[in-house]
Give the backbone structure.
Amino acid sequence: MPKISRRQFLKLTAASAAGVAAANTGFFVHPDYEALAVSNAPEEVKYSHCVMCNHGPRCGMKLIIKEGKVYRVEKREGYPNNLICAKGVSAIQELYAPDRLLYPMKRTTPKGSDDPKWERITWDEALATIAEKLNEIKSKYGAEKVLFSTGDPKEPRSAVQRLAFTFGSPNMGTESSTCYKATELATKLLYGPEWFTASSLATGAGPTPGKTKVCIIWGNNPPWSAPVSYNGMKTGQESGTVKYIVVDPRITPTVHAFADVHLQIRPGTDGALALCFANALIENDAYDKDFVENWTHGFEEYAAYAKEFTLEKTAEICQIPQETLKKAVDILLTEGSPIVCKSSAAFPHHTNGINNYRAIMSLIPLTGSLDVPGGLKIADEPLNFDEWQMTFEFARSSDLLPQLDHLRVDREYFPVWADTDQQGSVQLNRLPEYVETGAIKACVMFGGNAMMWPQSHLYQKAFQDMEFCVAADFYIRPWTHNYVDMVLPAAMSWERSCPLTVFGRKIFLREPVVEPAGEARSDYRICCDIGTALGYSEEFWGGGEKSEENCIRESLRTLKVDTPITYEDLQAASPGPVEIPLKGEPQNKKYELGLLRPDGKPGFTTPTGKVEFVSEILREHGFDPLPTYNEPVQSPVSTPDVYKEYPLIMSSGNRVPMYTHSKERNLPWLNQFMPEPIVRLNPEDAAERNLKDGDMVKLRSPYGELTAKLEISVMIKKGVIDMFHGWDKANVNELISRDFDPISGFPPFKEGLCQVEKA
Ligand SMILES: Nc1nc2c(c(=O)[nH]1)N[C@H]1C(S)=C(S)[C@@H](COP(=O)(O)OP(=O)(O)OC[C@H]3O[C@@H](n4cnc5c(=O)[nH]c(N)nc54)[C@H](O)[C@@H]3O)O[C@H]1N2
Ligand SMILES: Nc1nc2c(c(=O)[nH]1)N[C@H]1C(S)=C(S)[C@@H](COP(=O)(O)OP(=O)(O)OC[C@H]3O[C@@H](n4cnc5c(=O)[nH]c(N)nc54)[C@H](O)[C@@H]3O)O[C@H]1N2
Ligand code: SF4
Ligand SMILES: [Mo]
């Protein structure tokens, strides 16, 4: 039975103030493990899914329940994703953790003080206070001054959008301010702002067995960050016909599992590498002339620019040996197309992130690999679901948002983002400025985390300076909640039924498998309760216990399908799905068939109607329209003076298998694998500094410093450090600059400069 140290246990139980569950034993595994193990109570089987990573894969789970408690987690056969990793099994500890938030609480000391002295309040009091404060701000300053937000938890999004837009604020922002949306934006600049095409191409895809010739994996390590997608990629590999190029500054499990060639690149220089590949393909006549001639815009300019990126120059920029680079180029030239690029939502964490990514993704049209078998496929007949699985109509982004769009808080800072966003997801990274200028005065957040951002203290101050701030979460997280006025207990995945669980064309009903802990309520119910308290009873069905069912019914009512699907249909099919068949056959080359544009004409939704190597949207906004390669804002090349004092490149937030962002440090089953923050350094860099494995080291940047334990590893490229984010007492984001990518507003999490020395 796993044990936790006395220190960890004290940490867990320290939070057991009123409203937080008390620990029952010193070795926290499961509150009733021993009793349930010998209990003769009948076992019930129920079905749900896991949201322990980022509400992304949603691996199916068969749950064994005894005496009303989840006792065992098993694989859910027949579910689209049915892998269960260590984090998935630990969802039991997440559910029953002794420090779970159980009741609404209001603070009784000023915001920002070390101890908010939380006081339990009733839901009635909480809802009345929220309604009074928000309505007061609305009448004094305007509804748009209230920000609605979600963090990495994606599932609450649609309900929070519905709440924001009904209230009259277009200012709903998500963690996608640092994740995914930049890949989507780069894709929109290539293919046009229409969301369905962009979202199906944004992060690329793995190979199709027997069809794909080359798969280039750019900065993505799925064995640790997405085991489900790793399994899929393995299947592609089994055909034996795909060649893999892996581009990563670290020697990851992905490199071991796949790479025919590993390009151990200097962080932030991928744009140069992609342009070098483009140049080689063009110079050797190995590109798709037909596609380029008929369906693309700006080829001549792009080809002329790419010419600058010779093998020699690129090897130097990217710090890759020229012979290794040549091997990769030879694979591209000899294997032919279609190719696929597989990347990740976190890839553009660079000051030149958008343009690096545009350069990468331009290789798809250049090689004629768009929407052909074995290439990057565009979704067939996409359903009108919002990104997080209620309909656009449910989220009210189709009817209310367009009328509110002019009140967006981000347009002045990030106009390309604002102009191409159809869903209502404002860029949040300038939150300190929004609050400082009075553009935002209050916030309602669901699963927010102030440590998500570079120089987190500015965001903590922003929450603190607002007139009112309320947060719904599973736990009280001091690094965020010390700066808010009120916390609300949110129900976890197994305790709730919203949103609908959609995989492609399969819709599953998720029935709650246990009662919510304490007075926790699901995010959908909380939104309906707040909406009702604000005076929108009709839009939120009066809130209350039937809120989730009402939300599901509304989503199904607004689902655009020939044969309507009802709640009862889903119940009857459960635990299986209701599947919506395609009307026609899956299509290739949908741009030829007029399936990508609202007017039904062939082509794309870009200003020119073609794939834009040279972006007219960027030109219109005064940016260089080419996928230009720019050095990171701080780098050995662009700031040699800073580099003298900080001679290491800081790569932060590369995923570790046992944690998701700031979560799960309170779960003993996971915490034992990495009980404290570590900084990884190459053996040569460590030797130069006289450092030993396990030394406590100081990590410094021009912006701050922290202390962590050193792990010496050949995994990381010489000259680069590797540190995970989300550590309360060693928050690497305090060391990162706020030099945002000027197009996407994304922070440079993976390219700044730093130094490591003995603590
Ligand atoms: N330095 C650095 N910083 C980074 C990154 C990096 O690579 N490097 N990555 C960025 C990326 S890609 C992302 S996505 C963000 C992470 O985004 P964050 O929002 O920072 O993610 P988490 O730390 O998971 O915090 C989520 C919070 O939501 C709560 N929560 C979880 N599920 C639910 C739910 O269903 N309902 C409610 N109400 N609450 C819930 C959790 O308890 C937790 O407090 O971080 C970004 N920050
Ligand atoms: N266990 C776990 N899983 C997660 C998460 C988590 O926190 N924990 N977070 C989830 C979220 S929100 C996201 S967005 C995804 C992220 O998923 P991924 O982006 O796949 O995350 P990583 O596994 O860190 O892979 C990124 C790889 O990029 C490399 N890299 C860093 N800088 C550069 C660069 O400049 N160029 C190139 N070519 N490579 C670079 C790193 O060395 C690393 O191996 O993971 C999701 N899954
Ligand atoms: S990969 Fe692991 S943490 Fe993520 S959904 Fe699946 S089981 Fe849960
Ligand atoms: Mo992310």
Summary: The first strand starts at residue 44 and ends at 49. The two ends are 35 Å apart (CA to CA).
